[in-house]
Protein: Cytochrome c class III
Amino acid sequence: MAHRKVVAGLSGFLIALAAVLGLGVDVMSKPLVAAENSTARADLIMIDTIAQQRELEMPASQFMHDKHTAALKEQDKDCSTCHKTTTNEEGKKVMSLKFMREEDGSADELKKIYHDGCISCHAKDKADGAEKYGPQSGECRSCHVDKPEYTAEREDVEMDNALHYIHWGSKQISKDAGEETNCGSCHHQWDEQTQKLVYKKFEEESCSYCHTEAPKEPVKTPERLAFHEQCVVCHQTLAENKAENYGPVECAGCHSEKAQEELKQSKEEMLQKLGGVLPRLPRQQPDAVLMTPPVAEDATMQEKEKVEEHAMPVAFNHKFHEQNTDSCAACHHKSVQSCDMCHTPRGDADGEFVSLAQSMHQADSMRSCVGCHQQEQKKPECAGCHAAMEKKAQPASDSCATCHEPLQSAGEGMGMMQMNQDDMSSMMNASESVTTPLPEDKDAREALAKRIIERRPDTPRNIDINDVPETVTIGVLSDEYKPSEMPHRKIVKKLMEDMDNDKLAAAFHTTELTMCQGCHHNSPASMKPPRCESCHGKPFMEQQPGRPGLKAAFHAQCMDCHKQMQLEKPVSTNCTACHEKKD
Structure:
């Protein structure tokens, strides 16, 4: 299947090398131009192609790409001066990234192409009386230098949701035939019947899904070349057609730090004009997905029932995640198909031997649900509590019911999975249960997933702030300093405000006392938890090396929390901010 998808670029998949930083939509500025840095250049190319075949006679030649493009522009010349350009069956320009050739030849052939091509151009400029011209014949060390003055530094480029909208929302790009969209300008597939590239609406795929570093037939163009051919040539064509706005055609316009900063600012201005929310990608993606383990097409009814019996489906809020991630690549890191297209229940080579369950639950992977959620816990408003909590390779088993819906038998009306009844009742609405068999129809499954999502809490469950003590006096260790008066209610109130409208907290803070566990970490959830000294000895107890002494426990709990929440006051060295010094 992979070899049939030939070029595409759904949000987030043009990584690193694509020159796509600023196409024209009304909210965007003119093409970006980045100033040269004294030592670091995005356009520096060290020409050492011959080194792949034999040892170099001289150091690699340093070539400033943007410097040459600017010089050609002054002479009314374009990229075809150095790069062979052809027209494909679709009538689009296809430019070779190689200098004056399409394929690599022998070392001697390459040497002749470079010397004849470069030096002859420089010599012509000099003969024509140009004020500036390049090194002439015999001036070898002007290009071949032992210690180059510049270094190549290129910023990675990502086609995130905002940059993707700049393209599909652009008035500069021609619309698809009979459509109001322009997605076909970039996205296409290989059609086996016609043996041509075609555009199929609502089947747009990721570019890097087919265009890898070493693509397989019938894909011929490797990743870097595909991105530059698709993007730079399009930008160049728009520029030649005098478009009001067009993307960069020079290296620094995409890959320099300044260009990236300017693009970031442009995106923020655009998002502000759009009211803070990007228009949704027109690809017919679902609002909600009922996620269950895959069932083989040739599976028997008994096998299907067995899978469903242990399925514990997850209602995934796809629309919400679209709006709260930078790109689709946050989850769909290869293809925009469902996860089980690559990650099978057992795991195989297509999914790099990562099973479906692992792909969802790996705590150390930003591509998994659990890993992404744990990353969210590092935000200052969350990290105060979560940074001190033990991180495990897998989530606690009693948290499964937060995402997974317990199935009920339609005939018996009782849970088919052995679960805590309190957890079950907190997730299930008495008016509608998730029963077996699950619907097979796509629309029915989406409708069920929507209903499950709608009955989830929108805000965290919090205790009544008036039930929280105004202050707590900590004086058990008072000696040089007076007892500390901790503003307990003020702290709890601030934590509640930070969690307001946080859907993750609403889902995972399942009881009113969950938040309290951030400080009262190893005690049962209670409105009157035991005092710290009931576990932490005074002084440190050698027979319990993993448990800090009382003084260390107090300071670590308080000061580490302040540090994680990025609170400027009190600083950890200001003892009297918490403890008034005794006379």
Observations:
- The chain has a mean pLDDT of 84.
- The radius of gyration is 31 Å.
- The CA atoms of residues 119 and 136 lie 6 Å apart.
